[in-house]
Write a structure and sequence with these properties.
Blueprint: E1 3-7, H1 25-34, E2 44-46, H2 52-55, H3 61-69, E3 77-80, E4 83-85, H4 89-108, E5 114-118, H5 139-151, E6 156-160, H6 167-173, E7 179-186, E8 205-210, H7 216-234, E9 238-243, H8 260-277, E10 282-286, H9 292-307
The chain binds zinc ion.
Zinc ion binds next to loops.
Length: 309
């Protein structure tokens, strides 16, 4: 039993324009990490395209249809100030969401201990009917709803350690007591949501805003004292991770001070909860991370903890 990797070259074809922080180079960095001796033996599977039905579990059908109809033949189509579609985006956005569904299927079938989806664009800002912050479809939420409907699970948790608040995931989970969402994020920072008083319909939303320039100690304290006990109490049948590496000290879009050791630590702690609560079942999906060195360091640390589960 090991860690499965889901990825696809189509995710390189989502072109966000010159100088955009969420560019294809990010995935190239992660593929270099996957080619290292310690990870090159991991089985890689092609990320399949999500079906419209899978997307429509969390997104309004009209939104899904509108996005797919907006794909430009050349140039760019702007969905919001910093979220663009290019001619190659269709495969990327469908495979980013489809990868999480396929990873859930594989882990639920016992084909691997856990799985990591090395895909882009990221998804956690995408709301039911709105693209936001580089995100078009909410990959992790599509996976969570797929797990419930396809595998009959009643309690699915998402832990999001991206430096930005996962407002889209929260919007989709807040009214559903069978879904749990916990997020550490810098505040104030884009998108401005994620206050600690946003708790959901059954205290199933847990926000741990961190002041700018917080580091390892503040992050670990929030995870250890608040998130882990609440996650244990929720007793998930499957744990999903929104794995963003932009809380790394080198990241240009935020001011937290995490290092590779922190990403390895938090992953190990989450894997330990999954071992106790849900037969080790963890599916992780890439979110942000915009410094190449920080992204590589964070991702390698995350994979190291997943592969040792
Ligand atoms: Zn982010």
């Amino acid at each position: 039993m090991t860690t499965l990797i889901f990825t696809h070259p189509d995710c390189l074809a989502h072109d966000t324009g010159p100088g955009h922080p969420e560019g294809p180079h990010r995935l190239a960095v992660i593929w270099e990490v996957l080619d290292r001796d310690e990870f090159k033996g991991l089985e890689r599977r092609p990320a399949p395209e999500a079906t419209t039905g899978q997307l429509a579990r969390v997104h309004d059908r009209a939104y899904v249809d509108a996005v797919l109809a907006a794909m430009p033949v050349q140039g760019y189509h702007r969905l919001d100030g910093d979220t663009l579609l290019s001619p190659g985006s269709r495969g990327a956005i469908l495979r980013a969401a489809g990868s999480v569904c396929a990873a859930v299927d594989a882990v639920m079938a016992g084909e691997a201990t856990n799985a990591f989806c090395a895909v882009r664009p990221c998804g956690h800002h995408a709301e039911p009917a709105r693209a936001m912050g580089f995100c078009v479809f909410n990959n992790v939420a599509v996976g969570a709803l797929h797990a419930r409907e396809r595998h009959g699970l009643s309690r699915v948790a998402v832990v999001d350690f991206d430096v930005h608040h996962g407002n889209g995931t929260q919007a989709m989970f807040a009214q559903d007591a069978g879904l749990f969402f916990a997020s550490t994020h810098q505040s104030p920072l884009y998108p401005g949501t994620g206050a600690s008083w946003e708790r959901g319909v059954a205290d199933n939303i847990l926000n741990l805003p961190l002041d700018p320039y917080s580091g390892s100690a503040e992050f670990r304290q929030a995870v250890e004292r608040v998130i882990l006990p609440a996650l244990e109490a929720f007793a998930p049948e499957l744990l999903l991770i929104s794995a963003g590496f932009d809380a790394h000290a080198r990241d240009p879009l935020a001011q937290l001070g995490l290092t590779g050791a922190d990403f390895e630590w938090v992953t190990r702690k989450l894997v330990e909860v999954a071992e106790r609560q849900c037969g080790n079942r963890v599916v992780s999906v890439l979110e942000g991370g915009y410094d190449e060195t920080g992204l590589a360091e964070g991702c390698a640390a995350h994979l190291r903890a997943l592969t040792r589960a």
